[in-house]
Amino acid sequence: MKRSIIKYFLSSVLVAASFACHKLDVPITTELTTDTYPQDSASFITAAGPVYVVLRGNFAVEWAMQNSLSTDETIFPARGGNWYDGGQNVQMHYHTWTRDNGYVNGNWTWLSTIIGVSNQTLDILGKTESEGDTKNRHLAEIKMVRALAYFWMMDNYGRVPLDTVAGDYTPHSNVDRTVTFSFIEREILNALPYLSRATGVSTYGRANKFMAFALLAKLYLNAEYYTGTQRYNDCITACDSIINSNMYTLAGIGNYLDMFKYNNGPATPEFIFAVPYDPNFNNGSWPFRGVSLNSRYDVPRSMGNVAPGAGYNYFNIPFVPGAPRSTIPSFYAYFYDANDVRNGQWLHGKQFKQDGTPITITTTYAGYDAITYAGNNAPYTYQLDITPDVILRQSTELFDCGNDEVAWNMGYRNIKFYPDPTSPNRNQNNDIPVFRYADILITKAEAILRGGSPTNGATALNLVNQIRAQRTTSPGWTNITLDSIYNERTREFAMEAWHRNDMIRFGKFENSWGFKTDNDVNHRIFPIPTNAIKLNPNLTQNPGY
Asked: Which of 76, 178, 192, 309 has its CA 20 to 30 A from that of 1?
């Protein structure tokens, strides 16, 4: 079913873009014309395909990296020179990113392209002779994707240029966050009356009314940080619009991890809005990969498709994973409750096969520990042991742990998006959620705790206990604080690209963790890329860069 959804979007991707790199005014050429598209709901959906194709672009990899590696959630050290990647990963950890960092550049381009393609599609579809509810619904849907891109751009880059007119290549100045905030809010409120209330297969992967309410809730939850004015009551109202619909439910305690597996999709009860992925539909027509690669980065090398004796293909995946990404002990410490099913997303300690026997690896003494046993090529067999600490034992300057088994097994690994044995390559089928029902409940709880007025008999405590009742067999909480809300969000949404947003709102982004000691508040937002300013000299660089 998921494959048919993606195929429907991609079957007539007719847009070919001439990309103005790092610029919001992206010129687009297209075969869509008022003579050929669209006449009915199905053709409107097909015509919107390019918008969703580009949305898939960086979301699961580069976007997730930027919003995770810049926090205490993940770390991406080099291993014997591999994965240094021009320093972009070490910069994310230390908060020393520059205007030319690969993630900073790539995600500006990606978000700009979503906006440019949305503008072009809205312009074309807005001129069609088709009128009425069908046309208005699909135009509103595309505006929600554009609003999401602007929200992400505002959140990561602060002051950004606003452009909603296709074909206008005039250099625009970047505007204050309050202006972008008001634009996004207005777009959502104007679109809401036209958006579909349908859920499930018919709208999966597309923006519906509840996706819009979820985006509005996120906007209002962060309003005090973005604009200086709190909007917690408005946040609660947006959350209630989803809660009172009874369209979504929490996954049960035995199904939490199932939500993120490679066979997830429209039947997933919590997904309000998700980005579908399918390795059989890689997108070669864009400068973005459009893939989901979690197992490539997170699975230990000896638990993938390895040579005999070099490990054990525990996950039955068809490739040797790179395994450079892990967490640090201070983040893993949030998962202290032994009765919590969310602990199951981690690989740590000694590893065993499905039958309970140890996973063993045969190498040499030097292959196991090149520093202690340099030059010793005698055979050595050991049980795979994933250790908690990340140690830069080869080079602190190059953020390098070394190129031996000790180094490659450093750091606990997250397999929330469970490795996909059905994929013919390293790309996964796992769809990635943007908004989940659990987020709505805990967002309402946080808004109440920050001063919003409770509604419908709900308290911050009972809202969070609703979630915890489906995550752990430990007793429910008897009291709640903002810190405990933060801790619960950290457990619930690990690896879902929200942790940076949370850390900033809770005032924790300037803390020290891992090797990072930077506490510059200017680093709450990223710099405007160099190339963006070259292309658009009206852009003003963010403070501190």
From this structure: 192
